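Module 6 notes. Inverse folding takes a fixed backbone as the condition and produces residue identities as the prediction. Think of it as a translation problem where the source language is geometry and the target language is the twenty amino acids. Below is one complete input and output pair. Work through it position by position during the lab.
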């Protein structure tokens, strides 16, 4: 498995920072909070730093330069979105819309497993496990209490993805820049 480059780290922070912000926003469906708003704001800032980092490191290459890896990535993400969409429709039709965030988190967690080798990032596997545990915690909390599962899953997943984005940036900063010569 190849090591992620500085460019990969930047774009990882961009994408996961963006989705962390979305999860913090989803948590606000369960309870509005200044802390959740702050989490969204910080996540967007981290995503912006990730974008700048990724764009400023073109010589470092990327896992996505490999056509086969890029194709596998597209297939994995396409399947992920389709499964999320179908599951959300089923949950909505069954009168269980409160469990949609749980479903989304579970599918997102599962999709990190096949992405790890494609992106050359073995740390996606522990993120996958943590994300699936977040989904389970949200399901249990939603079924056993009056706490909205969107709050539990949104807050926990937002924190996980924000933390992962920050560590990706830190790993990328430690990687030496490759020259374009």
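Target side of the pair, the amino acids:
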């Amino acid at each position: 498995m190849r090591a992620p480059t500085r460019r990969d780290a930047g774009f990882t922070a961009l994408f996961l920072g963006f989705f962390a912000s979305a999860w913090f926003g989803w948590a606000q469906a369960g309870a509005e909070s200044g802390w959740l708003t702050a989490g969204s704001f910080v996540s967007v800032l981290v995503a912006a730093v990730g974008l700048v980092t990724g764009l400023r490191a073109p010589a470092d290459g990327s896992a996505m330069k490999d056509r086969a890896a890029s194709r596998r990535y597209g297939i994995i993400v396409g399947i992920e979105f389709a499964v999320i969409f179908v599951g959300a429709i089923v949950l909505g039709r069954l009168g269980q819309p409160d469990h949609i965030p749980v479903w989304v988190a579970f599918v997102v967690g599962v999709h990190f497993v096949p992405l790890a080798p494609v992106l050359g990032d073995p740390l996606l596997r522990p993120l996958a496990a943590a994300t699936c545990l977040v989904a389970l915690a949200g399901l249990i909390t939603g079924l056993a209490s009056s706490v909205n599962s969107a709050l539990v899953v949104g807050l926990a997943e937002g924190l996980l993805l924000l933390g992962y984005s920050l560590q990706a940036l830190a790993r990328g900063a430690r990687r030496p820049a490759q020259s374009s010569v």
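Reference fact for the lab report: Residues 67-93 form the longest helix (27 residues).
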